[in-house]
Design goal:
With about 375 residues, the chain is of the alpha/beta class. It folds into two domains: about 240 residues, Aspartate Aminotransferase, domain 2; about 110 residues, Aspartate Aminotransferase, domain 1, CATH 3.90.1150. It has twelve helices and 13 strands. The radius of gyration is 21 Å and the shape is globular. The relative contact order is 0.17.
Length: about 375
């Protein structure tokens, strides 16, 4: 099987991640819920992961690293902490529904800083024009549908100038692109553990730099006599039992990434992505969405098929043991910006474990499917 859907979930994991999860299931209890060895071992495991994440993302203190169930959970915490009904909130034209739906549910006034696909200068200018008067800004670092790398540093600087708190969705960048929390000065950065951080599903991380409001209330193992959630991080945002086994796996996923030279994983995945793009670009009846300069795109490649529906192409690839994703990818805003809202696309996304041979086999499979159509 060739797995090219890592933008959804990194199915292929380092062996150390699998071993860590397996061992944690029978070794770790609930942190903060006892002084016995299994509980203390869980507390040590979670603190170790928190410290590792703080170091990797340059977060001022480990307590500013909050564990969530996924990026959606973290984004909901961040948005509910900063946005009130009627607030003017600026977003990019490439946001996931995990941003748009919470904003709509609150009743925010959503302003889209739209820009053409892969045009970073236009995106920066759009934010410059839209930010005055905004109460909050939410921006994805990388489009999950097209791999468009938005100019997040420049957008962060604009937010700082206008004193607009910034929430960053790092779902498709955390683990492959540089992400310096202190330099960005964001109020929040949300990310999943199960994508490029190579951890298990059911794990997520929220980096906190501003005032936060609990999304849920419950037990924390601290200040148990108080009737409200603690006023300190991370306890304030971490009610209920932690996913200790998942966090153990996330620790090992992050350690795998940190064992590689800086940028090595990104270069490997990007080379595979553009090798596939070059091959697919030669096929008639296929529109390939790629950045000609290669500077504004990660390892996510979307295509649109003229000869059959995109769903049909994905199904035929699945029959050839090649896993991809077709549709709108929970990001209608991105497809509206790219002009693909009506049909969606077929998306190929890579991991550290894909190979040049797999990219070549995939290109040949698409060629064969189209020639048979």
């Amino acid at each position: 099987m060739i797995y090219l859907d890592s933008a959804s979930t990194s199915l292929q994991k380092p062996g150390r991640v699998i071993r860590a999860v397996s061992g944690a299931v029978t070794r770790l209890a609930s942190p903060g819920r006892g002084c016995h060895r299994p509980a203390m071992a869980a507390a040590d495991c979670i603190l170790n992961c928190r410290m590792l994440l703080a170091d990797y993302f340059n977060v001022p203190a480990p307590e500013n690293v909050v564990f969530t169930f996924n990026a959606t959970h973290g984004l909901n915490i961040a948005i509910s902490s900063l946005v009130l009904p009627g607030d003017r909130v600026v977003v990019s034209g490439y946001e996931h529904n995990s941003v748009i739906r919470p904003l709509n549910a609150i009743g925010a006034q959503v302003i889209v800083a739209g820009a053409p696909l892969f045009d970073r200068s236009a995106a920066e200018e759009a934010f410059r024009q839209a930010l005055p008067g905004a109460k909050c800004c939410v921006c994805t670092h990388v489009s999950n549908a097209f791999g468009f790398i938005l100019p997040i540093l420049e957008i962060a600087e604009l937010c700082h100038e206008k004193r607009v708190p910034l929430i960053i969705d790092a779902s498709q960048s955390a683990g492959i692109l540089p992400l310096d929390f202190k330099r960005l000065g964001a109020a929040f950065v949300a990310m999943p553990g199960h994508k490029s951080l190579l951890g298990p599903q059911g794990t997520g991380v929220l980096l906190c730099g501003g005032v936060s409001r609990p999304l849920m209330s419950g037990g924390t193992g601290s200040d148990s006599t108080e009737g409200l959630m603690p006023d300190f991080l991370p306890d304030r945002l971490e009610s209920g039992t932690h996913n200790a086994a998942g966090i153990a796996g996330l620790t090992r996923g992050l350690s795998y990434i940190m064992s590689k030279p800086a940028g090595a994983i990104f270069r490997h995945e990007k080379n595979l992505c553009f090798a596939l793009a070059e091959r697919l670009g030669k096929l008639p009846g296929l529109t390939v969405f790629q950045d000609g300069s290669r500077s504004a795109q990660t390892c996510i490649l979307s295509v649109c098929c003229e000869q059959m529906t995109n769903d049909a192409l994905a199904e035929k690839l699945d029959a050839a043991d090649i896993c991809v994703r077709a549709g709108l990818h929970c990001s209608p805003a991105a497809h509206r910006s790219a002009g693909t809202l009506e049909r969606g696309t077929v998306r190929f996304s890579f991991s550290p474990f894909n190979t040049p041979k797999e990219a070549a086999v995939t290109a040949e499979a698409v060629k064969r499917i189209l020639s048979d159509a």
